[in-house]
Specification:
Elements lengths: L2 H21 L5 H16 L11 H6 L22 H16 L6 H27 L2 H17 L1
Helix pairs in contact: 1-2, 1-5, 2-5
The structure holds zinc ion (ZN).
């Protein structure tokens, strides 16, 4: 799954979670802002794909990619794990921030973790579909879609 599709899936998920949070009174207008403070960077800049040298986010970080050592474990390994991924990708700033006594709102963590899990889930669904659906079916669907586009 590419960067644009991941970002779109995460933003749609964040909007749905925001609506649910507001409707169920788990979020207020103030905590909604904190939720989106967690959502935006973990959708656009700090994603699980920092473990791949060819990903868009790795190129954004360039030589300052502090997660580069995780690429040695392989793409879709540690940073794509449902527990270790958020621990590593959030812990690098959370632990020092808590250590110096900074107040961290739980909504920021919730926004960040939900976006990382959304990324992992969409990766899993996309890969699962690629494995389940035979290539000949995919080619056939693409052929039909091309034909429809030509007619329209
Ligand atoms: Zn990924």
């Amino acid at each position: 799954m590419n960067y644009k599709h991941h970002a779109l899936a995460c933003i749609i998920t964040a909007i749905i979670l925001s609506i649910i949070g507001l409707a169920t009174n788990h979020l207020t207008t103030e905590t909604l802002v904190y939720f989106w403070i967690g959502v935006i960077p973990y959708t656009l800049v700090i994603t699980c794909d920092l473990d791949s040298a060819s990903s868009v986010v790795t190129k954004l970080f360039g030589p300052f990619n502090i997660f580069a050592p995780f690429a040695d474990f392989g793409h879709r390994e540690v940073l794509h794990h449902y527990a270790w991924g958020p621990f590593v990708l959030i812990g690098w700033w959370l632990i020092p921030a808590l250590w110096i006594g900074y107040t961290i709102h739980i909504e920021i963590i919730a926004g960040a973790v939900s976006m990382l899990w959304c990324h992992m889930f969409t990766d899993m669904v996309y890969s699962g579909c690629k494995r389940v659906v035979p290539k000949c079916v995919v080619k056939g669907v693409k052929y039909v879609v091309k034909g429809i586009k030509r007619v329209c």
